[in-house]
Amino acid sequence: MITTRRTLADGREIIYFDEAPTDRTAVDTRDLPQTTTHSQARFDPLLGEWVVLASHRQTRTFLPPADLCPLCPSTPQRATEVPESEYQVAVFENRFPSLSTSHASWPATVEGSPLTPLQDGYGRCEVVCFTSVHDSSFARLDQKRARLVVDAWAHRSAELAELDGVEQVFCFENHGEEIGVTLSHPHGQIYAYPFVTPRVAKISANVARYRKSHGANLFGDLLATERAAGLRVVAANDEWTAFVPPFARWPYEVQLYPHRRVADIPELDDAQRDAFAALYLDVLGRFAYRFETPMPYIAAWNQAPTPKSGVPRDDWWLNLQLFSIRRAAGKLKYLAGSESGMNVFISDTTPETVAAELRGVSA
Q1: Torsion sign (Cα): 170, 254, 90, 136
Q2: Which residue from 22, 234, 244, 311 could staple onto 305, CB 3.0 to 4.6 Å apart?
Q3: Of 225, 243, 226, which Cα lies nearest the Cα of 234?
Q4: Of these residues, 155, 175, 185, 187, which one is catalytic?
Q5: φ and ψ at 93, to 5 degrees?
Q6: Radius of gyration (Cα) for the chain, nearest Å?
Q7: Is 263 exposed, middle or buried, given 0-12, 13-18 or 19+ CB atoms closer than 10 A?
Q8: Helix, strand or coil for residue 292?
Q9: What is the pTM of this model?
Q10: Contact criterion met (CB below 8 Å) for 326 and 250
Q11: Predicted confidence (pLDDT) per residue in 118-152, tens digit
Q12: Does residue 187 carry a catalytic annotation?
């Protein structure tokens, strides 16, 4: 993998990832003001969770037509976020970030609410463009390009984890307008958080309790039981298994686990990265062809928190959660009272049926 770093007109960084040496000298010709955005993080004392306020994102680009897509390569007629005329994988700082490396001074608590701690919304948000082809998707990438994306995730995860104050790095993709995607070009995002997210904190605590009670790894035991049962396994290869968790909360949900434990994406070796690319494309293809139209989905990497977070990493087992809000042809799962109000999910499907359906899908 060859990386090339450049700077956009407003001072943001862009990094090109190529399979072989490639001349990347294009200059951003746009007249943009320097990017200076600030966010807040406010602590909810009832739930013990941080909430990020980023009101400047109200003005971000929303569903532009294809000929105005900001993620397509630049042309002589139109400059975009990517100055080159073509690219393989490109990663750049988000122009409308939820978290920013620009520090701001805030009071210790929210005005009029001493019970609500307030801190700088420090962090970094990046956009990961999987291909320069607008009318494509991750599922349509070939295996070499998918592997290049994995390498880009690993590169960015390792580097962002080194930033002062960053406690967790989250790589993800939102796919499909029903999910809330505002740009249809094939892309994902990376958030570098200044705190450990609620999901990871809760999982870490449960993993620690399981270790104390059973002397074993909770992730590893879950993977082993699912591989042995086979009932909910969708697909597998020598290095990875994709299965519908027996406790799935989303209508269509698949989790991908490496057979050998690693804490985060940078720790994956070449064999694991190659095998993931192959299996992930397989599973995405099953999502794309389950119904007449491809399913909207969220793909979320669950990595260990960074060492500076203070959360133990020794038992963490990297995994990817892929899920869709589509529950049937033409029907979506809405998070209504029980889910949104009480965080108690009520599923319209059963894991065993979903696994069987996905196993039966062929591209």
Answers
A1: negative
A2: 311
A3: 243
A4: 187
A5: -65, 135
A6: 21
A7: middle
A8: coil
A9: 0.95
A10: no
A11: 988 899 999 999 999 999 999 999 999 999 999 99
A12: yes
